[in-house]
Amino acid sequence: ERLPELLRRMPKAELHIHIEGSLEPELIFEMARRNRVALPYASVEELRRAYAFTNLQSFLDIYYAGASVLITERDFHDMAWAYLQKARADNVLHAEIFFDPQTHTARGVAMETVLNGLHQACVRAQADLGLSASLILCFLRHLSEAEAFETLEAALPLRDKFIGVGLDSSEVGHPPEKFARVFARCRELGLHLVAHAGEEGPPAYVWTALDLLKVERIDHGVQSTKDAQLMRRLAQDRIPLTVCPLSNLKLCVFPALGQHNLRELLDAGLVATVNSDDPAYFGGYLNDNFTQTFAATGLSAQQAWQLAANSFEASFIGADAKRRYR
Ligand code: HPA
Ligand code: ZN
Fold it and tell me: Is 18 annotated as a binding residue?
């Protein structure tokens, strides 16, 4: 069997996908029309042409603008359902999906509208696609600790609709320790904990995500290779990294896919996984990330199976379910 076919047909879990980053330009324009939201772009083509990023912030500005068309429960459902169908086509059997409630509540959309719409799509995915999907609420790190606490309070009446919390948005200048007290509270509540760290930010942010936030996984974490002691810690404690190669390429974290450090992470014995991050913006869903990265770096079939196994090990499915995927 050719490697690209193996990569496509392997069962896998996706653990780093921002649902707002799965909103395709066509759906942005459709929702803008039905919700009468004005867009600063004349057409789908013009919007797509704006997708030329130089770093994380240049992407975030456009990503938050795109999310402004999401108003109703149906919008949130339709966005997530479109992603889940694409994920199933990539043989994703389990997905843990980030959402950014503050991007919506700041515009007057209710937390309930966001969570109910997304959750309905997850229930439908299990029933219609046999794909299990759960939600992870992300705090925006460029906003304050107080705003994160308010967001958590607003979400707690819907506690059964999400499994954990994460930390995303502009990394540099907003270290994990800014949210130590919020994460401590989430930990008491029994929520799973993850955080973006070491995407553009230094290895020090990965250390504080682990030691102060006590996260179970690191999102991105690719800057960790700059710190040998950190690499040993990640390997010894089997802390998974949810790596997003096409994202790293499009946000200029690496100059070319062939220079990505995924092989180095695997060779060091880390539980690295491959994920799509914001597939509508970065030029590909999960299988595109696998096939393009393998073509550029020359990783092997054995490493493909390792990455698929890692994705289930790193997930928050129960121990019984994990055994079934081994
Ligand atoms: N990094 C930080 N915040 C984000 C990202 C990312 O890659 N994608 C969506 N929000
Ligand atoms: Zn991300």
Answer: yes
Q: Which domains does the chain have, with CATH numbers?
A: 3-315 (3.20.20.140)
Q: Cα separation of 126 and 134, whole Å? A: 10
Q: Does 192 count as an annotated binding residue? A: no
Task: Decide if 177 is catalytic.
Answer: no
Q: Is 277 annotated as a binding residue?
A: yes
Atom of ligand 1 nearest to the CA of 247: 7
200 lines ligand 1 (CB under 6 A): no
Catalytic residue, from 14, 73, 171, 199: name it. Answer: 199
Could you tell me if the CB of 217 is within 6 A of ligand 1? Answer: no
CA of 100, closest atom in ligand 1: 10
* CA atoms in the 13 A half-sphere facing the CB of 288: 15
Q: What is the pLDDT along the chain (326 residues), one digit of tens a residue?
A: 899 999 999 999 999 999 999 999 999 999 999 999 999 999 999 999 999 999 999 999 999 999 999 999 999 999 999 999 999 999 999 999 999 999 999 999 999 999 999 999 999 999 999 999 999 999 999 999 999 999 999 999 999 999 999 999 999 999 999 999 999 999 999 999 999 999 999 999 999 999 999 999 999 999 999 999 999 999 999 999 999 999 999 999 999 999 999 999 999 999 999 999 999 999 999 999 999 999 999 999 999 999 999 999 999 998 888 888 87
**313 to each of 23, 236, 271, 326, how far by Cα in Å?**
28, 15, 8, 9
| Angle at which helices 286-297 and 301-313 cross, to 10° | 140
- Supply the residue whose CA is at minimum distance from atom 2 of ligand 1: 169
